[in-house]
Amino acid sequence: MDTALLLTDAEPETRGLLERRLPRDGFALVTPRERPDLVLAGDVDAVDRWVDRAPVIVLGREPAGTVDCVHAFRRGCDDYVAPPLDYLELVERIRAVLRRSRREVEIIDAPPVHIDIATRDVRVDGVRVELAQKEFQLLVCLATDPHRVFTKGELLRDVWGFRAPARTRTLDSHASRLRKKLRAASSEAMLIENVWGVGYRLLPADE
What is the DSSP letter of 24? Predict the structure, then answer.
């Protein structure tokens, strides 16, 4: 499954280089409407928009100096790559940031759902729920942003590794089984909402 990267505010030459080379190394470039695993930001101001949603690496611009780097870290970025850009170094930095971020996320709480990723323990209102592998992965994906509607394309890419749109009932059938299992643990909780024509979310939208 490719890692989803958002490339934003990059200079044209840098954008062209990364758009050519990143897909060859297992990275899928996504749009701002999709959920990235990591953001490559060519402008420090972009850190404010994304820091609460995904790890951010700032791509420094010429002329750059210590002040730019410090400013980026104070905004909350996870790493800063000074110019001139070394592509191989950038790839290793991306992988290092992703490793750190994935280790940090071990518990997901989206009441009434509680997920311990390390032990694959899933509970709804304290009741343990046994899930198959893809059901678990689908739940984790939805629980990372429980009120957000994930498109079918996003879920097929992130959970099943589909690299292009496909006509399949795989997602719908897994979502249906997952909904039944969660509902059996808590009949009062409204979980796994199908937003017709768009996709799925774990919890109903906030009123």
Answer: G
